[in-house]
């Protein structure tokens, strides 16, 4: 088994052990989740979550905004099966690289999933999201230089880009950074109450 397959197996094909392993690999995992939810610019009605995994972000999003309707997309069948067993409903098996579920979306959110796309893949995703979403929030591992590296990365599987590049590509801003983690937010069409506040 190649290192990339091993990593996929560890993090992506075994939802039962994912939570423990990701927290060992990314000590600021819970803070990243919190900061990502904090960055949501307005109470969203319809949300598309990319790479929902064990639905950690999904649950936190619903805790903060109980009226939200969330559609989840993930490319790992085991994650989709497990999350459905746990009661999550609108979950789709699919890849971010392919056409996304039909919007429009108040918010597209992705935690620790966009770094699986290379730079061209990210730019393409951001371009497609922008036509369908009022806001985009990403919390992810980024390229912050070798001194900042905490998360273990697998060549050919993890492709972190810098936070600044991603902010530029999606037309957004970096709202939080620590070690090799960042939260990036883009608001394309603010809701009325948010327009007043900005
Ligand atoms: C590191 S996990 C993050 C899971 C969750 N968002 C979290 O914060 O814990 C990455 C998730 O993204 C999914 N994923 C990876 N590449 C993907 C792609 N190209 N399209 C859709 N989902 C993908 C994986 O199956 C996995 O569930």
Write the layout of secondary structure elements.
Blueprint lengths: L2 H9 L3 H11 L3 H10 L7 E5 L5 H9 L4 E6 L2 H9 L5 E3 L13 E5 L7 H12 L4 E7 L21 H8 L2 E6 L2 E7 L4 H6 L1
Parallel strand pairs: 1-2, 1-4, 2-3, 4-5
Antiparallel strand pairs: 5-7, 6-7
This protein binds S-adenosylmethionine.
Descriptive account of the structure:
With 198 residues, this protein is an alpha/beta fold. The protein has one domain: Vaccinia Virus protein VP39 (Rossmann fold, 3-Layer(aba) Sandwich). The protein has a seven-stranded mixed β-sheet, sandwiched between helices. It contains eight helices and seven strands. Strand 6 (173-178) and strand 7 (181-187) form a beta hairpin. It starts with a helix and ends with a helix. The longest helix is centred in the middle third of the chain and has 12 residues, at 119-130. It has helices at residues 3-11, 15-25, 29-38, 56-64, 77-85, 119-130, 163-170, 192-197, and strands at residues 46-50, 69-74, 91-93, 107-111, 135-141, 173-178, 181-187. Residues 11-12, 22, 50-54, 56-57, 73-76, 79, 95-97, 111-113, 116 line the site of S-adenosylmethionine.
